[in-house]
């Protein structure tokens, strides 16, 4: 560790980015993809949806947590950038209002471009009389029966509205009594069970009207005898973080299910109002009844909840395929070329897999083949997030039914996947699998599978270790890596790891694996210290690290110390980065880039030059405090020279990206890296896909 003097020197808040503001900077980079004219039109809409989805989670968890701190009277500055919870909330509001304004500006810019492609999202005013009559019939038959107006008065209090639901606040007055000036208020929830966009028939065009617009237009049918004075369309975001009291919870499964029910009704943390025809008095009323600060009011220049654009993208991806990305087919992994049996191939050498450039199928096959292989005795696996119709879950169930010993750690606390994972846990138990739920107070985030096989009276162990989830759907959208190995000591480590999770035993001493909590951080510090030592001795200290986020202050300070010693450091950090590069005398030897593009960068790679004896690691863990101390994570070394070489080449390509890469400057802001005039434009993701397509040529 650094000396106390060194720690004090590096403890200046000016040397750090605040975690929440750094996340907003990341979401701005997502928004930039929606603004990028080089992206296909429907993909730009999808990035708007991603931006909205990201913001929902940010408010439900991060902003909600800050608000809880303020309510509790906690006013201590956070330990990096030195901002109090109140200061953080004020800055979040200031930055985010501008980002939301730009997001809706982008939406309004894309709409006319869609119209040129004969795709329109129309308002009722744009329709002909015949089209409105047709919509009225649709409303009467399909929408009206589902609606429930909820009066708000002295006897009927403001209803508890669902998190993220769209609602209409309708102000009405008696139409039959001209002397009755008393206005009444009712709430109508836009049903989430109905399609958000409704097609208006046209011979040559694809025309749609949003569900809430149809309901607003015909809302008078719900209030016979009353005149509609105003309609205010609004959406509430609630605190959705879960408080799980693990100590004393005899059944974690039931505890999670109980908390899931509460999530829908947490305290309001954001109010969104559409700017079409809102009522100022209604907004004032909503702010009061929901106890929301005016800084958390967002008036949008377009439809609320742009996540509906995900479905819009899906609807047109086959009809208008020139408006989406070109289809790229993951290729058979290079290390499995010419191999029919994955187990046989893994006995000869470690197999490297790089998704989505290379197919995820071998990972599915690894589990599926083990389920059906009569020589396999046991399968053990950790599951954090899986797909809705997971072939891996089916294979595990089949393995148990085939009489194999199947142990599955299902992480019930995987945020926003808790409900899915509860269901999978029940299904796996029903099929005969041994299901465990991880360790008290820790999330099990590691990605590991162990297959125990016996052939010719010899026990063999095969291990898959990865950077990403066992999710066949996200494997086509996220960049991730993994290895399959039969090395004896990896097998022993995997056995010890699962026994540690499932039983009562002291923490194992691993041959190759490093485990969080704590050990991974300690190992990182040791590796960085080695680079400092080699830099002083030989002048060749070098670190390259790729991860999703970097927040751990201990590691940041150690990287600053390495920079001060002259170690050259390149960091590829997709999301949050609390480290500030380029500060004279502190981090001038550190470069930080973020790549945001077609695929979500999810792999974690850590490279240390080690005086020419390159050390390369893959991991499930980012350099975040939560990964270092609050999660069960694995860091594993790469030994095969060919795989090491490939990983170094991959890192080199990413560092040369001048299309989708942004570089962080010493004030914490990010700017696109521009290719020098006449230089080759390098989109690292597309280059890596091209390499996978031309693997034989590349080898030659």
From TrEMBL:
GO terms for biological process: polyphosphate biosynthetic process. Its EC number is 2.7.4.1. SUPFAM superfamilies: Phospholipase D/nuclease, PHP14-like, PPK N-terminal domain-like. It catalyses: [phosphate](n) + ATP = [phosphate](n+1) + ADP. The active site is at residue 445. GO terms for molecular function: ATP binding; metal ion binding; polyphosphate kinase activity. This is Polyphosphate kinase. Belongs to the polyphosphate kinase 1 (PPK1) family. It comes from the Bacteria. Keywords: ATP-binding, Kinase, Magnesium, Metal-binding, Nucleotide-binding, Phosphoprotein, Transferase. Catalyzes the reversible transfer of the terminal phosphate of ATP to form a long-chain polyphosphate (polyP). The lineage of its organism: Bacteria, Bacillati, Bacillota, Bacilli, Bacillales. Its cofactor is Mg(2+). It comes from Halobacillus mangrovi. Residues 16-121 form the Polyphosphate kinase N-terminal domain. ATP binds at residues 54, 478, 574, 602.
